[in-house]
Amino acid sequence: MAVDEKLKIELGKQGVMxxxxxxxxxxxxxxxxxxxxxxxxxxxIEMIATTMARYDLARFGSExxxxxxxxADLMIISGTVTKKMAPQVVRLYNQMAExxxxxxxxxxxxxxxxxxxxxxxxxxxxxxxxxxxxxxGCPPRPEALIQAFMTxxxxxxxxxxxxxxxxxxxxxxxxxxxxxxxxxxxxxxxxSNPGTWTVPKIIQ
Amino acid sequence: MASSPYFSLAVxxxxxxxxxxxxxxxxxxxxxxxxxxxxNEIKNAIYECGLESRGDAWVQFRSAYYLYAIIFLIFDVxxxxxxxxxxxxxxxxxxxxxxxxxxxLLLIEGLAWAWAKGVLTWA
Lengths: 204, 123
Hints:
The structure holds 2 protein chains of 2 kinds.
Chain A: H1 5-13, H2 21-30, H3 43-51, E1 74-78, H4 86-95, E2 101-105, H5 106-111, E3 133-135, H6 142-157, E4 182-183, E5 188-189
Parallel strand pairs in A: 1-2, 2-3
Antiparallel strand pairs in A: 4-5
Helix pairs in contact in A: 2-6, 3-6
Chain B: H1 7-33, H2 66-87, H3 94-117
Helix pairs in contact in B: 2-3
């Protein structure tokens, strides 16, 4: 931060606005997060409700649901990801342009939820793609999704344009391609993307 | 030049053009300088539905389907036109009758063609 926070407030009282390119840039990015029009299961109904008049997602600049991954900034994994669907989800994520973000909405998207024991259910989408915000709930209420949006906005606001914690699209070294799993004999191959998720070790 | 009544309009036009193009130019410059492009095969794929595209986009349809079109015209479209024709028949002039006759004859020709082709018999 180039300008001292207290000085900034003091200047603001005198009617002087001080800002940085980073602040302006992040303000622009966080005020127009366009989600992809993409629903997986019952959580999608709550997602739809969030965009409608009662909850009015438009207040956060996110009402423009894009039907193409090329124009979307945010993927809301709204519901159970079956193993049949997982490759498509990962491929769509790959086709989104940077900067891209992911919200895992609901218990199923986080861990498989109530269907975790199912042979056909992926135990959490973060096995294949990096998730920015997880919202618990079954399904989460629209308020929870709005909370997730605000959390994501906070996250974008805090990103620096340079240095180690810069967002992925400004980083030459950051990976741009995430491996799309294939249908194996018994499970998806590979069961998780090594760079994205590490298999938790059971310590006895 | 400055005395021309359209001078101020020209200035406004240039400003409006700049107002539109400057952000585009800045965005392009920003992308070139700061945001490295990372294309890959999946990202550059044409199809955007999550599935992999298969086969050729040039799909051919059997031209033999024209027979179905002819039969449809004869038994469906013609019937729709025949009904009002029959209702209004007594009040029609010669010109209307002749034109309707041409229409029906054309379709009967189609029926004869389909008959000759053997489309009307169950295979």
